């Protein structure tokens, strides 16, 4: 990893109580996800959405079959969740079950689990409550937003005509898109895939390589790949089915 000041030891991350060490803890966490260049943007995001943005940036850079409609659904459900009661969530009934939406929801929750572990290993630079799924993710609510986004509903509809959410939505979207652009990953709508989703070259000096249907990172430094059954490479192939 490339960490400002060098990679700190676990003894420093876990036991040192000096105020400046908290900065190094965050630097180390971001380096784990190759997000050091987006530190300033992520710090400007309010809690509990820092963790969500961190994870979305990582996923959208790694998985080239994720599109703008997916990003809209992820962000919209997180914002709308804040105003939902338990009974409202229980009574949600999606029109139908979309297999891809189920897989995306599962991917996000597994990503949150990984974030919990990384945050712990780095000495808790972020509050653990920010990573709890019930604060930023609900499966049925995400499914509803995914189906709406897939059908081309306007962002205002996804956000249930709430103007305060609209400002937050565009702020969070801008953070994710800007960070992805730094890694030469342009998030486009599904309608653009025919002309743009045909293989790309990554930035000079980056760890990307070209593939037949897009691009992905090389396996170096990516703990979610090449781990036998259930590895990211296997799942990447499954994404193409949808």
UniProtKB/TrEMBL annotation:
Q: Give the source's domain of life in one word.
A: Eukaryota
Specify residue ranges for compositional bias: Basic and acidic residues. 233-242
* Gene Ontology cellular component annotations, sorted alphabetically: nucleus
Q: Annotated region Disordered: where? A: 192-242
Q: Tell me, which GO biological process terms does this entry list?
A: fat cell differentiation; peroxisome proliferator activated receptor signaling pathway
Composition bias, kind Polar residues: at what positions?
A: 204-222
Q: Which InterPro entries match?
A: Coact_PPARg
Q: What is this protein called?
A: Constitutive coactivator of peroxisome proliferator-activated receptor gamma
Give the classification, highest ranks: Eukaryota, Metazoa, Chordata, Craniata, Vertebrata
């Amino acid at each position: 990893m490339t960490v400002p000041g060098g990679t700190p030891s676990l003894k420093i991350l876990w036991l040192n109580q000096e105020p400046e060490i908290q900065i190094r803890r965050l630097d180390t966490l971001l380096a784990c996800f190759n997000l050091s260049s987006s530190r300033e943007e992520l710090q400007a995001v309010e809690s509990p959405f820092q963790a969500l943005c961190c994870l979305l940036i990582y996923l959208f850079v790694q998985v080239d079959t994720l599109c703008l409609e997916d990003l809209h659904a992820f962000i919209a459900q997180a914002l709308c969740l804040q105003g939902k009661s338990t009974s409202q969530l229980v009574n949600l009934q999606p029109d139908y079950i979309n297999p891809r939406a189920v897989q995306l929801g599962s991917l996000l929750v597994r990503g949150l689990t990984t974030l919990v572990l990384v945050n712990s290993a780095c000495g808790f630079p972020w509050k653990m409550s920010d990573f709890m799924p019930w604060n930023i993710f609900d499966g049925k609510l995400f499914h509803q937003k995914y189906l709406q986004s897939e059908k081309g509903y306007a962002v205002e509809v996804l956000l249930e005509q709430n103007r305060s959410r609209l400002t937050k939505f565009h702020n969070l979207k801008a953070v994710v898109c800007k960070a992805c652009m730094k890694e030469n990953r342009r998030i486009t709508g599904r309608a653009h895939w025919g002309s743009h989703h045909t293989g790309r070259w990554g930035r000079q000096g980056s760890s990307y390589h070209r593939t037949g249907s897009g691009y992905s990172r090389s396996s170096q430094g990516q703990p979610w790949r090449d781990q036998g059954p259930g590895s990211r490479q296997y799942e990447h192939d499954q994404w193409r089915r949808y």
